[in-house]
Amino acid sequence: MDNKQAQKASLGGRLASSEAFLSVAASLICIVIGLALGVLVLAIINAQHAIGDGLLVILQSGSKSARNMGTVLANAAPLVMTGLSVGFAFKTGLFNIGAAGQYTLGAFGALYCAIVLQLPWYLCLLAAMIFGALWGAIPGIFKAYLNINEVITAIMFNWIGLYMVNDIMYGKGKSVMYDLTTTKTYSLRKIAPQSMIPSCGMSDLFGKLQSVTIAIFIAIFFAIIIYIVLNKTTFGYELRACGFNKNAAKYAGINDKRNIIVSMMIAGALAGVGAGLYYLSTVAEWNPQVSTALPAMGFNGISSALLACSNPIGTIFSSLFISYITVGGTKLSTQYYTKEIADVITALIIYLCAFSLLFKNKIRALLAGKKRAVTIGKGRE
Q1: Are 311 and 87 contacting, i.e. CB atoms less than 8 angstroms apart?
Q2: What are the phi and psi torsion angles at 291 (to 5°)?
Q3: CA–CA gap between residue 24 and residue 11 (Å, rounded)
Q4: pTM, to two decimals
Q5: Which residues does residue 185 pair with via DSSP β-bridges, in sequence order?
Q6: What is the mean pLDDT of residues 163-171?
Q7: Predicted confidence band at 380 (pLDDT cuts at 50, 70, 90)?
Q8: Where are the beta strands (DSSP E) in 110-237?
Q9: Which of 96, 75, 94 minimizes the C-alpha distance to 206?
Q10: What is the largest CA-CA distance in the chain?
């Protein structure tokens, strides 16, 4: 057996035992297969334009201009946060399907402090975090002390939060937050410019798009912090231990009830910050009169977390990818396709993420098999 074969066997063994490599490889397989199926869907709708006016538009439009790329970044920042929210809960054994409600409460906290209290942006962002954390704590308390599944309570409080926030913001058209002329909350650019997240030159880099701020860097900072907390601290180990086996963690002296509540509070805080980053960057204004559907950003966080295998750092890249595909989808020619086709392709990729564990095991077995074959060959020599 020569040195090259030995090196390949050694490399294969290291890769087979690397969870980070296996997760990335499985996610890439999901993306490639999802895009292939997306092309098939495009071909079924309109075979002649499936590639040139379909897939290539989706893949190229996001980076075709500086403004498009700015839009990708502006939408990716809150998506990173909701992805972290869902992924953090996954890591601790909980399913935070309530990110949409926590996001809604975060939006209210940020906008109230901006429009009514005229506070600076960082205090508004802190308020969004607190409001999201408090709303996330409610399903955690029900789970910890009444053993009620967090999915049930989170879904219920999603809608409670939405209609409560809409009612307060609208105030029958007389609320101090509601602008009758635009049927939305008051524009921060007009009445609370001090509450806007600073651009620090980012907007100039992306075609003078004013909604491009340092929000993406704040989101990346949170992702790094969550990664450190989960993987490098005793507190994070206790949270993950409760997620792996609550009874074993309790037997080891870990306060499982406290950790369940704290996990949901942290998840809620992350979702709340996501809303703060979105609305304080003035990407959009909240419309309480017609916002009868839960914010899609909260549910898209589930997609981001699944594609990243709940890895906080991976969530940054999965969120950027989903945002990129979504922006590309808005550029599709309505002559051939509807803009929602990008959501279909994203959904296909996310559906395939359900098989990520299968892909990981297949890749691991393949690499381990090569290592074993080389080792046997070496023994025969």
Answers
A1: yes
A2: -80, 75
A3: 16
A4: 0.88
A5: 178
A6: 91
A7: low
A8: 178-179, 184-185
A9: 75
A10: 86
Report yes or no: 165 and 158 within 8 Å, Cβ to Cβ. no
Give the DSSP H/E element, type plus range, for residue 36: helix 19-46
Residues with Cβ within 8 Å of residue 19, at least 6 apart in sequence: none
Contacting residues for 109 by C-beta, under 8 A, at least 6 apart: 124, 127, 128, 129, 130, 131, 132, 272, 276
Confidence (pLDDT) at 142: 95
Q: What is the pLDDT of residues 181-210, one digit of tens each?
A: 888 889 999 999 999 999 998 988 998 899
pLDDT tens digits, residue range 173-182? Answer: 888 999 888 8
In angstroms, what is the C-alpha Rg of the chain?
A: 23
Residue 63 pLDDT level (bands cut at 50, 70, 90): confident
Reduce the DSSP state of residue 184 to 3 states and report it: strand
Tell me the DSSP string of 312-326: HHHHHHHHHHHHHHH
Closest CA to 328 of 19, 2, 53: 53
How many other C-beta atoms are found inside a 10 Å radius of the C-beta of residue 363?
18
Alpha-carbon gap, residue 296 to 107, rounded angstroms: 13
pLDDT at residue 33 greater than cutoff 60? yes
CB atoms within 10 A of CB 125: 26
CA 320 to chain centre: 9
For residue 134, pLDDT over 90 is answered with: yes
Amino acid (one-letter) located at 101: G
Task: Specify whether the CB–CB gap between 337 and 51 falls below 8 A.
Answer: no
Residue 381 has pLDDT above 60, yes or no: no
What does the alpha-carbon distance between residue 262 and residue 100 come to, in Å, rounded to a whole number? Answer: 18
Q: Tell me the residue ranges of DSSP E strands in the chain.
A: 178-179, 184-185
Would you give the distance in Å from CA 252 to the centre of its chain? 32
